[in-house]
Please model this.
Amino acid sequence: MPGIEHYLILSALLFGLGMVGVMVRKNVIVILMSIELMLNAVNLSFVAFSHFNADVKGQVMVFFVMTVAAAEAGVGLALAVAVYKKFKELNIRFFEQLRG
Amino acid sequence: MEMSSILFYLLAAATLFFGFRTITVANPIFSALNLALTMITLAGIFFMLDAYFIAGVQLAVYAGAVMVLFVMVLMLFDLSGEARAFSRGMMSGILKVGGVSLFGIIVIATIMGSFSNILVIDSGEAAAGQALVQPTTRDLAVVLFSRYLLAFELLGLLLLVVAVGVVAVSRIKGGTHARD
Model:
């Protein structure tokens, strides 16, 4: 029977993977995917705490996080599409040169 | 080893493998597919934790809607010039080393914390494992529509604002659906 620490370690590893992805990758879309990975890791620790404390509030929080994550992905992708349409560029290095 | 442990380790290994593939595969389409598989294995872990509603939402919203959004957007781009998928340079290297060590610290802190009893409120009861009564989807609905009703309605408002905002972004000058 895996205990709460198993789930928390899995969550920490997944969060670390997402964090490394944000720092290492150059494509804006892949960076957004890595952010989703981190949000999922946090959701996992919320659900684990909810299970091991038999408290439903953690799951309510996960529900809210999922909704905000979907909204964030929508806005992020819309901006990425708008930038690509204008500059034909998806590289994160390119975004530091934007002036006005 | 019991059944639930085997299942947990299988799902955990699959999750970590697909998560690792998500950030290491050079082609963004394969990244998206690996991310979808990560979401599905995570939904399996949510099932193991008796969070059936959350697992269903994870499959429908994340593995379904959000991933379709990602793949659709990727199809709009010309990704043939994706030879250098990873950033290079001194600053980036420092960030990578810092990120990996921070990540190690989180893991070590979790392992250290698991030896103390701060993680569960009543450790005596929790040690008994299944002695706790797990909340059902009904309990989740009752809490969501009573105590957190205002937050729930505000989420609806947020989604409306985001929908209008995304349409506005696509309609501005130079956007994908510009009026001129």
Chain A has one domain: 4-95.
